[in-house]
Protein: Uricase
Amino acid sequence: MSSQSVLASARYGKDLVRVFRVVREGSWHHVVEYNVKVLLEGNIETSYTEADNSVVVTTDAMKNITYYLAKISPHILSPERFALHLGTHMVSKYAHIHKSFVTVEKLRWSRIPVGAEGQEQPHPHAFVRDGADKRTVEVEIDASAGKDKIVAKVSSGIADLLVLKSTGSAFTGYIRDEYTTLREVDDRVFSTSVDLKYTFAPFAISAPTDAKGLDFPAPSQDTPGGVWDGEIVAERVRTATLEIFALDESASVQATLYKMAQRVIAENADVQTVTYNLPNKHYIPVDMKYIGVDNTTPSKAEVFVPVAAPSGLISATISRKQG
Structure:
């Protein structure tokens, strides 16, 4: 075999572990549905370089641990806390595993309102998928410095949040040269599929105290805007994104994006960075001049063709100012 190559890095694991959990509090039920990915790093290089499987934690075991913790973890209803619990267990159980990477995608389920109009109440155990957007959580658990010196990094976010407004958006004043065919508009349809990630400051995790490494002593409370406050932060971030999108008299996608991120950082004390990816969803007015109908003047444009590609893509990361 060639001596000119070296294994620079390696991680492996299980992807697309689908988990649905019902938590019963008498007749009042909670449900969560997750797609989970687990990756491991550590002293596993010989499985690649020497075909030595004795260092391999099987991906089947990773899947089964995920299901088992989904059953016993008191943190299952919070994707941040559940991911931290799962990742911490992985590095605590296996001496040669030094890092774990857990990604959780949470699908939307909301209670169905029932009752007379104006007096609706959320049903205790009936739910509806009320949107295609998903909450996302990415956790890195690092025990490289020792099993009693675990450090966690957490990023959360939203994916596939499709939004549109039919006015309140313009795009003018950009560079015009021989390659520019785009017309300036002071009123246009603005639509995008929001993909955002917000990252918390790294923090220490207490090592499990039980022999099997299943204990996870998460605090019951956290400062507002912190990772243990994940459900409230997620709702705050979603609300900020939607409200800024709706209310901003947008001069550009870039300008609106920046206002969204500013509010997320201002409202959540432990969020360090916010990254938005906002692809344009184009709606092109149909030209009806051939039959004497004006459908291209912005104030008269009412019939559009949705165009999937090509698409503009606006992206930026906004960080908390230090000092």
Notes: The chain has five helices and 13 strands.
